[in-house]
Amino acid sequence: MHADLSPLIAATAQWLTRAYPAGGGAVDRALAEAQARQAVTLAARLRYPTALDAALVAVTGAGGAGRLDWVTGADTAQDEQADAWRSWVDEIVASWAAGLLAAPELAAAAAAAVADDGTPGAYRRLLAPGERDRRAAALLRHPDLLAPVAALHHDELLRRLSAAA
User: Fold this and answer.
1) pTM for this structure?
2) Cα(125)–Cα(138) distance, rounded to whole angstroms?
3) How many separate helices (H) and strands (E) can be counted in the chain?
4) Cβ–Cβ contacts within 10 Å for residue 86, how many?
5) 80 lies in a domain?
6) Full residue range of the structural domain in which residue 120 is found
């Protein structure tokens, strides 16, 4: 992963975990966050495969969470200063990550499409979640709940995966 994508990945994963919160306590939140972060990282690697791509999005910005909030019906009446991270949310990456979380076959195809980063099990919680992972991220992995976000850029994700195959 390119270091330039770190703010985008962190913000987009945070948006997903706020839009689809984990039930339970701190462990469930951590497990759901790990799954969201893996999905977002994989989606970002697909979307921005080169260092130049990552540098360009770092310069131009990711676009923000506005449309995603509208699609999910999120309350956006927040303190802009406190929520500056929201400007780093990448709508396409969030949409692709939602698709990967909702459809295990897409997640497997995406993992196969990216070059090996030398980290065995880098996407283990995304690709082979345990029962505790599934319970912790019940909303985050629910296909019906994710459908409005995943549908935003689903065709583009499928084109990217078919081109990588």
Assistant:
1) 0.92
2) 13
3) 10, 0
4) 21
5) no
6) 3-73+86-164
